[in-house]
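To whoever is on call:

I kicked off a structure prediction for a single chain this morning and the downstream step that reads the tokens threw a length-mismatch warning. I double-checked the sequence; it's 256 residues and nothing unusual in it as far as I can see. Pasting both halves so you can look.
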Amino acid sequence: MEFELTLQIAALLFGVAMVAGFIDSIAGGGGLLTIPALMWAGLPPAVALGTNKLQACGGSFFASLYFVRKGLVDLKAVKLSLICAFAGAALGTILVQLVDAKVLELVLPFLILAIGCYFLFSKKISEDDRHQVLTPTAFAFTAALGVGLYDGFFGPGTGSFFALAFVTLAGFGLAKATAHAKVLNFSTNIASLIFFTLGGKVIWVLGLVMLAGQAIGATLGSRLVVTKGSKIIKPLVVTMSLAMSVKLLASQYQLF
């Protein structure tokens, strides 16, 4: 497709990506900003989604790198979950081309809203690890695979779903769950990017400009996760869950 990347558009999308990367590293939902911005710039929906995955890879990579360096994530311990998340996202990207996603579109806003309510009202969420419900292997083949499949198939709220799974099923504290959620989200982003690239749906120059913005925002947000923990994570997760639910419902009923 023909697309003219002007300096003004590049600067604006860089700024949007930086804010989205900051939000994404803490609570997820940055796509609420970047996807509409890409479509405003003139990209068709499929190309906007593909280019968005490229820039999202930058944010999730730099956030993951920061969390690993700070010792919040042991990559060896989540290796199987990373593989399962990647495989799930790859399968979901294939399925979305074959299956009608209308049912998921109807249910999803309420699922994301439920996540926000859980984080808002649950007294179990804290910085401390608790008893795990699933073994790491069981978690990999259920939660990691399932959320990965969802991310490839649809996408909104993936970080929140991963974080909720780590809190409720793996018994992780909130900061640790957020860190692990971002690492798995990087794996699913890479899987989806590969398939979008094969389909010719990625504008690389624009995606790389936004990736730079994502890297800055994600690094800043990741530092707040480490230093502030649940004080900043819980309010932002609740806020982004509400925003995503409203946005998805509004899109369904064409309110704006």
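Update from on-call: the warning came from a stale cache, not from the record. Cleared it. Sanity check on the structure: The radius of gyration is 17 Å.
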